[in-house]
Specification:
single chain, 478 residues, mainly alpha, 0% strand, globular
């Protein structure tokens, strides 16, 4: 049964609220293992949902689910040791909401009904907001309220866009269920005016949650204030869930012959996001905020590639997968840096190569990967997007895209070099020793190694899932 995959972490999440700390940590890891096994079985067998029409196994949803499940499993192992040394207030609340967050994100990937998807994405906001407020500081409270308010406005616009899709059905007198799988085959019959209006509102609404500029303002604060395991999930997984809502809606637009309209809007929002990241990343003095702006850049890249169409969509999906793997690794490494140096300022975290060599390897490799260096997958994805842009005749957009990536790399590299090699910064204090424990380092190594392996070898079943997802939105791959 499809629903069991998101019901399992929901039940264990409720249990975690009342369990002692030690059992809660073990339950977190156990749920990660069970969820990964269930996701793999779901991918292999593709059973029908109990509530047919509301939930379904789709290529794009399955791809996102596999990423979510693998990331949560590795993050849960990291989190167990992280909690032992961080002394978080109300740890059982943190553990419970981590599991509920997993449940809601899983529900997003399996949702087929338009309104169920909306409910699931809204539920991710409610489940993740307490994670941002974990440290109970004034800054974390401000970041939480900003996250809730801005994302709530966005989700309200997405609701309006979803209602416009129903109007597109009513105006055309199309009588089918309000599911993506039912609407896509009859998309050409839908009223194009209301379909366009629905897409615009859904893009702005879910784009707010995805972190697209100029709706991105919640993201740097939320990522910098949340504990590092929560930041890894917010950046590596949550943003993909919002993108999935845009992806499914754009699939209807493509089937309706309106790709030029939706593609142009996606290209514009993608470029604005990349330019915004290029502007702000140059003057960041905190490493977690720097990583947050890097996420805004990568979401812009994914939106840009999706708007380009053709082989650009393949590049966008590749970037989505590898961004999740690499950025999650970077946020986990940032947790080690914070535990070791007790400071979030870049100026006070220098010479990490000497003080924290294991974390340095993971952090520097993650920087190389997220910056688009070969052989990491971001390079391959960006290359496909650039080729797709030139093939489609978007020469000016491609030029802006390439120039912005160069600026971002220069700013990112300047800050990373200070963190890793600057001997004039403050030395790491003694607590840095425990932040180099194996369970606080090897999850990052596995994430980076997975990204590298997928550049050279993609299992046939996984490749077919990627191809099916890309072709569903007009990628035209064989």
């Amino acid at each position: 049964m499809v629903e069991i995959v998101f019901l399992t972490p929901f039940i264990t999440g409720l249990l975690a609220f009342v369990l002692p700390r030690t059992l809660g940590r073990q339950l977190l890891v156990l749920t990660g293992v069970v969820h990964l096994v269930l996701s793999l079985l779901l991918w292999k067998n593709k059973p029908d949902a109990f509530f047919t029409g509301y939930f379904s196994v789709t290529p794009e949803g399955m791809l996102s689910l596999l990423v979510i499940s693998l990331l949560f499993f590795l993050i849960s192992i990291y989190t167990k040791t992280y909690l032992e040394h961080s002394n978080l207030p109300s740890e059982n609340i943190f553990t419970g909401f981590m599991l509920l967050f997993l449940s809601t994100m899983t529900m997003v990937t399996l949702s087929d009904h338009i309104m169920v998807l909306w409910i699931a994405i809204e539920a991710t906001t409610l489940a993740s907001a307490p994670l941002i407020y974990t440290h109970r500081s004034g800054a974390s409270l401000e970041a939480t309220w900003k996250y809730v308010l801005i994302c709530s406005v966005g989700i309200a616009m997405a609701l309006l866009g979803s209602l416009f899709l129903t109007l597109a059905m009513d105006m055309a007198k199309v009588d089918v269920p309000m599911s993506f799988s039912a609407l896509t085959p009859v998309a050409e019959l839908l009223d194009p005016l209301w379909l366009k209006a629905g897409f615009v509102f859904i893009l702005v609404g879910y784009g707010t949650k995805m972190g697209l500029a100029p709706m991105h303002t919640w993201l740097p604060d939320a990522h910098s204030e949340a504990p590092s395991p929560a930041s890894a999930l917010l950046s590596g997984v949550l943003l993909n869930c919002a993108y999935l809502g845009i992806f499914k809606t754009n699939k209807i637009m493509v089937a309706a012959g309106l790709h030029d309209f939706s593609g142009t809007i996606l290209i514009v929002f993608g470029l604005i996001s990349i330019l915004a990241a290029a502007t702000f990343i140059l003057k960041q003095n905190e490493y977690k905020r720097m990583l947050a702006y890097s996420s805004i850049e990568n979401m812009g890249i994914i939106a840009f590639g999706t708007g380009i169409g053709g082989i650009g969509i393949y590049g966008a999906v590749i970037c989505m997968i590898h961004h999740s793997l690499i950025k999650s690794s970077l946020f986990l490494s940032s947790g080690n840096i914070l535990m070791g140096y007790k400071d979030r300022l870049i100026a006070n975290t220098g010479n990490m190569a000497q003080h924290m060599p294991k974390t340095f390897v993971a952090f520097f490799a993650g920087f190389a990967g997220i910056s688009g260096f070969p052989p990491f997958g971001i390079f391959i994805g960006e290359l496909f997007i650039i080729v797709g842009a030139f093939r489609a005749g978007h020469y000016v957009a491609a030029g802006i895209f390439i120039a912005s990536l160069c600026v971002i790399f220069a700013g990112f590299a300047n800050q990373v070099m200070k963190i890793c090699f600057d001997p004039s910064a403050a030395a790491a204090p003694e607590p840095a020793r425990f932040s180099e424990k194996a369970s606080l380092v090897w999850p990052q190594y596995i994430l980076l190694l997975t990204s590298l392996i997928l550049c050279f070898f993609i299992p046939d079943a996984l490749y077919q899932t990627i191809v099916d997802a890309v072709n569903a939105i007009g990628g035209g791959l064989q």
